[in-house]
Design a protein that fits this description.
The chain has 451 residues and is of the alpha/beta class. The chain has 15 helices and 20 strands.
Length: 451
């Protein structure tokens, strides 16, 4: 009830009425059924419960952000950017994440990073449940944070994935904070890459001396951040360096210099980056006082998440992999390391202005036979690749995924692999990367059945 007591006398605006906005509305209405509330959204909302709510003001359409000045407490949804909006000093910008961490941060493990955060969150949750801990998972993946509040008791461990958008306005960090990596991403949401990095680092900047912050020593964008000196929490690092105590050596995972286990090829997570995600999970579990050797034993029973180096199947003696989650070059390069014998690579999508020159220079040197480009980002990538002139690789631009998958079947050698790992966002043609991945998988099976 602490959250409700804090806001009950405020003029409240719920900014954005997607999954999280609706969750916020439901939570407040449960405790304050007659309080005057406001909802602002760029869309016209077709929702029966808000139509029947007589204590609700709606601000919809193109100028929905103008209503900020009429309120003194705003629950901002993650997808809304305020990068060029002047905010009154009397208007407090908050969010579910901000309020949740204020009251439940001491029970929370928070994971962020440009890539790998969903897998790492789910892996930590899986191990905790396997070791009979009362664990709850929420945040950027799974349930909105407010939805799990009724399930929380003093013994609960909350594992939460946080996006940069969710961390942008927090005032308290989790007890254990993790940043996996930082790369150029979401540049359409922020004034600059530096603003994006600062939003991510908030997860540690708002911790205190009793908290823990964990990050890799091999991420230069983290290591060189001027904000690191402001962090008050206990700072743990991991990487290849045995001096760190938490490190990997020849597929052996060490926590506090103790061997936890040896990574095997038949584990459900592909790639070196996932081995590090697993090491990080073990470091977190060690902080919680759990047996890391026992924890390592539960990794093999983890089910990998969809659209993340997901093996679609073998059709016509060609292996198909769906890595639609890879929306930046660094993730695609990791995917090419993880998947063996890639013959055909699918790149491109929505163009957010990411720098592709170095990426394509590296890609064009790979042992590939076909690169399929699509979308505005694909046009830019293909132009770079054509100028580099590698005659051993066929470059083709295709518009529809029907054409793309058909081409994959016709031109990928038997015994080889076809990999969708676009290094670009999906929302030129799809609502998100999940839809893109699902379309790809369905087309692979559909076209295979016709052949």
């Amino acid at each position: 009830m602490g959250i409700i007591k804090e806001i009950e006398n405020k003029r409240i605006l719920i900014l954005g009425f997607g999954r999280e906005g609706e969750s916020t509305y439901d939570y407040i209405r449960h405790f304050l059924p007659h309080k005057r509330l406001s909802i602002a959204d760029s869309r016209n909302l077709e929702n029966d419960k808000i139509k029947l709510d007589r204590n609700l003001d709606l601000y919809l359409g193109e100028n929905y952000l103008d209503t900020l000045k009429k309120h003194d407490f705003v629950f901002k949804s993650p997808g809304i950017s305020l990068k060029e909006i002047e905010i009154s000093k009397n208007c407090q910008i908050s969010s579910q994440t901000d309020m949740f961490l204020k009251y439940y941060g001491n029970q929370t493990i928070g994971i962020t990073g440009t890539k790998g955060k969903s897998t790492t969150t789910a892996l930590i949750f899986h191990i905790l449940k396997s070791m009979n801990k009362k664990a709850l998972m929420a945040g950027n993946m799974g349930k909105p944070l407010f939805d799990i509040i009724p399930e929380i008791d003093q013994n609960s461990v909350i594992v939460a994935e946080f996006s940069s958008h969710q961390l942008e306005f927090i005032q308290k960090g989790p007890r254990i904070s993790v940043i996996l990596n930082l790369f150029q991403e979401h540049l359409d949401h922020y004034l600059s890459y530096e603003h994006y990095k600062k939003a991510k680092l908030n997860i540690a900047l708002f911790q205190d001396e009793n908290d823990y912050f964990i990050s890799p020593n091999y991420s230069q964008d983290i290591e060189k951040s001027p904000y690191l000196k402001e962090i008050k929490s206990k700072f743990l690092k991991f990487g290849y360096d045995s001096n760190l105590g938490n490190y990997i050596s020849e597929n052996q995972l060490f926590v506090k210099n103790n061997l936890c286990g040896i990574w095997q090829e038949d584990f459900p997570l592909l790639g070196e980056h996932n081995m590090f995600n697993a090491l990080l999970a073990l470091v977190v579990l060690d902080i919680l006082g759990m047996d890391t050797k026992e924890a390592f034993g539960h990794i093999k029973s983890f089910e990998a998440l969809s659209h993340r180096l997901e093996f679609v199947g073998e059709y016509g003696k060609i292996k198909f992999y769906n890595d639609s989650i890879s929306t930046i070059p660094q993730a695609t390069l990791e995917a090419l390391k993880a998947v063996k014998n890639v013959d055909t690579l699918i790149l491109g999508g929505f163009d957010r202005g990411i720098e592709y020159e170095d990426f394509i220079k590296e890609i064009i040197q790979k042992d590939l036979k076909n690169i399929i480009f699509t979308g505005e980002a694909g046009i830019r990538m293909m132009n770079i690749a054509e100028n580099l002139k590698n005659p051993d690789i066929s470059l083709i631009f295709l518009v529809s995924y029907d054409e793309i998958v058909e081409y994959c079947f016709l031109h990928t050698k038997q015994g080889k692999a076809c990999l969708l790992s676009p290094a670009a966002a999906s929302y030129d043609k799809f609502k998100n990367f999940e839809e893109r991945g699902e379309v790809f998988k369905k087309l692979v099976k559909k076209i295979s059945d016709k052949r």
